[in-house]
Each structure stands twice: as C-alpha cells, then as structure tokens.
Amino acid sequence: MVWSPAHGPYKLPRMADTIFSKILRGDIPCHKVYEDDLILAFLDIGPLSYGHTLIIPKEEVATLDQLSDETAAAIGRVLPRLCRAIRAVTGVEQFNVLQNNGPMAHQAVFHVHFHIIPKPSADQGLGIEWRSKKLDPEEGAKLAAALSKEIGG
Ligand code: AMP
C-alpha cells in the first residue's frame, strides 16, 4: 500500500525486507567496497556523483532510530574510514553524508543506510534546499530540556 495523508499519520515501517536485504543475502549483486560482521558498503547504483557509496547494517531495520547500539558503533567506526577511502580514490575533498528516514524525508529503500556523496563541484553531488528559521530562545530552552530528559542526558 502506498501511504497518503488520507491514511492518517505516517508510521515508519518497522520491518525491512528490501532490495538491500537481497544484496545482503547475495540474491542480487553489488559493487562491494567493504564488509565486516555487522556492515556492508557498496556503490550506489544511481550515483549523484562519482564515488557515491552506501553503507548499510546487516541488522534489518528500516530507520536509524531502530538501530542497536552495537551496529551503530560499527557504522561509526567505519564511516570516517570509508570517507577517507572515497576522498583518496576520487580526489574529491568535499562530501556529504546523508541518511534519510521515511518517505517524506526522501527514503526510498526501507533498510537503514548512509550515503557518502562526493561534492566535486557546485552542480554535482547532493543539492540541498536549507530552509532555516530563527530559533526562539524560550522555545529552544524548553525543547532542549524535553529532549535531554527523554534521552536521559
Ligand atoms: P534513499 O532515498 O536514501 O532510500 O536512497 C536509496 C538509494 O539506494 C538510492 O540512492 C538508490 O540509487 C540506491 N539503490 C537502490 N537499489 C540499489 C541497488 N540494487 N544497488 C545499489 N544501490 C541501490
């Protein structure tokens, strides 16, 4: 079923059985860049720029908030190394790391993934529309306190 506003508030999918699950199972091929017990990295089939790479966990969850600490740590360990490898091989020093959650947030494959996207020039790589507003100090204080309480920080 394709979600539309008529279905009510959008709920992020909890189970992921996607094209990336098929890649992990070896049912379909990929251009593998890196693999360990917890993660796999491979070239994006529709690159925004030369070197566009995806890193995915073997843990099958749809969105970042569902990821275990163990897998999150594994991604965190490898992500900078992958960025360095991509920089070294492409010769492009600037890059974006992108991670989408939910269809409105541009997620198309519902298996957690991080994009590493080299930015070789203003018109190549990731384009961002950054619609910032001004943070109201009072609202900011309340929000930070609520978030801090929620995370237990
Ligand atoms: P997102 O919009 O964040 O869900 O991005 C999904 C990404 O997966 C897109 O950049 C696609 O080009 C990429 N993708 C989809 N299928 C494959 C595939 N079989 N192999 C590699 N990348 C893929």
Instruction: Summarize the biggest pleated sheet.
Output: 5 strands, antiparallel
Name the beta content range: 15-25%
Bound molecules: adenosine monophosphate
The named CATH superfamily: HIT-like
Oligomer: single chain
For the termini, the CA-CA separation is 39 Å
Q: Which stretches are poorly predicted, pLDDT < 50 over at least 5 residues?
A: none
What integer value in Å does the Rg equal? Answer: 18 Å
What is the residue-mean pLDDT, rounded to a whole number? 93
Strand order of the largest sheet: 1-2-3-5-4
What does this structure look like?
This protein has 153 residues and is of the alpha+beta class. The protein has one domain: 2-Layer Sandwich (HIT family, subunit A), CATH 3.30.428.10. It is 29% helix and 15% strand. It has helices at residues 19-25, 69-90, 137-151, and strands spanning 32-35, 39-43, 53-57, 95-98, 114-118. A 5-stranded antiparallel β-sheet has the order 1-2-3-5-4, covered by helices on one side. β1 (32-35) and β2 (39-43) form a beta hairpin. The longest helix has 22 residues, at 69-90. The N and C termini lie far apart (39 Å). Residues 19, 30, 44-46, 54, 100, 106-109 line the site of adenosine monophosphate.
Summarize this entry quickly.
29% of the residues lie in helices and 15% in strands. The chain is α+β, with helices and mostly antiparallel strands. A 5-stranded antiparallel beta sheet has the order 1-2-3-5-4, with helices on one face.
